Amino acid sequence: MTPHFQLIANDKDVTDTLKTRLTELIVTENSQTQADSLVLTLANSEPIIKPPEPGSQLNVAIGYQETGLIAKGSYTLDELELSGPPHSMTLIARSADFTENLKIPKMRSFDNIILGQLLGQIAKEQKYDSQIDNTLAKYHFEHIDQTNESDMHLLTRLTKPIEALFCIKHKTLIIDHLKSPYPRPTLPIRTEDILSYQYSRPSRYHFKSVKGYYHTRSDPTLKPYILGDGNPCYTIPTPFCTLNEVKAQVKAKYLEYIAEEQHLTLTLIGNPAITTGHALALETPRIKGQYNVTSVQNRINAKGMQSRTMLEYN
Predict the structure, then answer these.
(1) Does residue 47 have a cis bond before it (omega within 30 degrees)?
(2) Which end of the chain is more exposed for a tag (fewer CB within 10 A), N or C?
């Protein structure tokens, strides 16, 4: 099949202008709080290409001429690179979902608040939409300190111990289960779909136990909470304000150290339908099982289209 793309720059379709100049197009989709990106490399021989202005909005869709295009989001042009000879131009754009305000450190605290209320408040302040699973929305915090910490970091920190995931997609702040109780969209992968693979299953038994400290408003004395047995013991350096919070943070760190994580990288024949949030079901002679997509990079160049996927065992 023949790879195909469409590029809209500031509401103007520039596909026909660029398609004879395209050297490579790379679209990278990430989960959690990493920005998606678009990289365009163009042959810049005569006549010289007039690049879009910094801050221009780029919308891209990719696919095949025989099966149609799949939209891959909106991006803001951040960088321009020129090189040569041979003369080329590289445009680097990042997803329009992220604003600098989300990364600004703040000093404040919250009392007697549930996670849904907190997410809604931050989304309103940042002029985003919000989306959260109903069960997670009811998770209660007695006290939260946001000490020289950005909103993005705060939500990431609070969701990890309760086995939830914070991410930003399409101008929406999203909190969902890390391992969703609902079936993920699953795509089957056959041996003939795979161009190359790399699999690892590292042992992470660095620590046998994890310790954290907490205090209460009525008693400032630090009290320990330990999960696991034996040494070496990892100690979380920052004390917590409630017993529930220290339990959640210690459990998250403990599971991180004792878990055996299976990571898989697949380079596939280009499949633009694969995206983060999907699962891939592998039934090959060497690797079997269902893996969650944490990142996918679609690349179009003279070799055709390839999809490089980063996966974690489900």
Answers:
(1) yes
(2) N
Amino acid identity for residue 291 in this structure: Y
pLDDT computed for residue 232 by the predictor? 83
- pLDDT at residue 230, as a whole number: 79
117 Cβ contact partners less than 8 Å away, ≥ 6 residues apart = none
CATH number (3.40.50.300, 3.20.20.140, 3.40.50.150, 3.55.50.10) of 100-177 reads: 3.55.50.10
pLDDT for res 209: 86
pLDDT of res. 241 = 80
Point out the residues of the chain with pLDDT beneath 70.
32-33, 96-99, 178-184, 201-206, 256-262, 314
pLDDT of res. 290 = 81
**What's the pLDDT score for residue 130?**
92
Q: What is the DSSP string of 186-252?
A: EEEE-GGGEEEEEEE-----S-SEEEEEE--SS--S-EEEEEE-SSSEEE-SS-BSSHHHHHHHHHH
Q: Other C-beta atoms within 10 Å of 114: how many?
A: 15
Fold of 3-95: Phage tail proteins - horseshoe like beta roll fold (2.30.300)
For the packed helices 151-159 and 115-126, what is the interaxial angle rounded to 10 degrees?
A: 160
Q: What pLDDT was estimated at residue 184?
A: 65
Query: What kind and span of H or E run contains 156?
Result: helix 151-159
What does 13-38 look like in DSSP terms, one character per residue?
E-HHHHTTTEEEEEEEEESTTSPPEE
Residue 300 carries which side chain, given as an amino acid letter?
I
Q: Which of 295, 305, 310, 244 is nearest to 61 (CA)?
A: 305
